[in-house]
Write a structure and sequence with these properties.
Layout lengths: L3 H30 L3 H6 L8 H26 L15 H29 L5 H27 L2 H4 L2 H8 L3 H9 L7 H8 L2 H11 L3 H22 L5 H4 L1 H19 L2 H12 L6 H19 L2 H8 L1 H25 L10 H33 L5 H30 L4 H18 L8 H8 L11 H14 L1
Helix pairs in contact: 1-4, 1-5, 1-7, 1-8, 1-14, 3-4, 3-19, 4-19, 5-7, 5-15, 5-16, 5-18, 9-10, 9-11, 10-11, 11-21, 13-18, 13-19, 13-20, 14-19, 15-18, 16-17, 16-18, 17-18, 17-20
Amino acid sequence: MASSTRLYNWYICMVAATCMVLYGYDASVFNAAQGSANWLNYFDLHKKDDAYLIGLVNTAYTIGAIVGGFFMAGPLADYFGRRVAFAPRHNLGCFIGGRVLIGIGQGLSLTAGATYISEVAPSDIRGTIMTFWQLNYSVGSFIAYWIAYATSLNIKRLGDWDWKLVVIFQLLCPVTICSLIFLQPESPRWWIQRHNDVAKCRAALTKIRATEAEIEDEVLAIREAIEFEKEAISSSYWALFKDPSVRRRLWLAFALNIGQQLSGQGTLNSYSTSIYMKIWDSKQTINLINALNATCGILFTLNAAWTADRFGRRWLLIFGAVGMAVSIGIVAIVAGATPSTESGAKSQPVGIAIVFLLFLFIFFYKPSWGATVWIWTAEVFSVNVRAQAVGMCSQMQNVANTIFQQFFPVFLAREGLKCLYFFMAVNILLAVFVWFLVPETKQNHVEKGGQMMGVPDPHHAADTTEEKAAVETREVRSV
């Protein structure tokens, strides 16, 4: 049976992981809204003629997230609530402005949440917890799409509220986070890294570690890692660019996070409604497919809870990229080889086959490029640069989305489902990239830091009073 301390660890990490529920919901709101004729009419939009404007509505959110994640999240490393307001009718600019503000808040919370989990979760369950971090993205999409499906069943009665209800439920996660996060302990690593306050570090660890020995071991490990990084690397964010090892990890993490979105998942999550409109006539059917897709996404992500540690990060990324390339490639082949009806849709058997293949794509994506990229990014950086590095890397997802998803509606309108060949090619390149460049192992600074501090056993704190006094004397001298 799990101890109360371990359960508390799970609790505080899951509160932080609610940021990903919010991310999944926010990222799915626009996809759900664009399937509503009331939303299009409210802002005087036409699906084909206003493809660039529709793309701008989506990228406004990612632009805000880039600003928040790159320039604010690292220094602030905190959570901010957000308010949702409805734009006046016909005023698309106001709606876009609101999307930018939401994106800024999301950029802040994603960086802080991932860093917090990586610093408070015990090392033996950190990979599993980061799996649930990615799973919560699917939970957010699940909530958004099922609300959208429910409102689509009552369009006549709801009117414009068929999409407004989907938007207003964005308040749910910020309210939950803001009401719980300030009752949780601060990161123990942050107390030493920013304030050199060992006492408060120990006090924070007392709440999240089971034994005194475990607490002292982790205090020692934190100080050893920071000691090494200050002398051998740097104590500032310049370490991201000055140190060759850190810089290489940064570029690799950038590429993986960009690849995560260009694999096709980012586009499918934002424009699946537009894609399914080329297959199905019924908008209710499309909303149901989106909801079922999000439901399966939760189940598929659970695979990462046992695959990430069993098979390793590298092999999971390669396997996932190959699986995604095959499934999305077959979708493009089937769509091109089968006739369309007079309305432009596909026959029901073809539609079911394509939906199955797109669900198969999600099956390969969720435990690999969905969960494993987050795990790899959170683990690969050292303590002194982790907050800024994780923020920058995670926002590379939004950089990729901003650039690509702005013109994807036009790409889809002109090329139809042949545009899916692009994602097949990207996934093949991602598999090759990981095979040749991405390492499985990560650097351990504890041993080197222990040598610098003169600690006999770098993994365990001293037990006797004399040894503790000696360690504390060395700590004071090092400061």
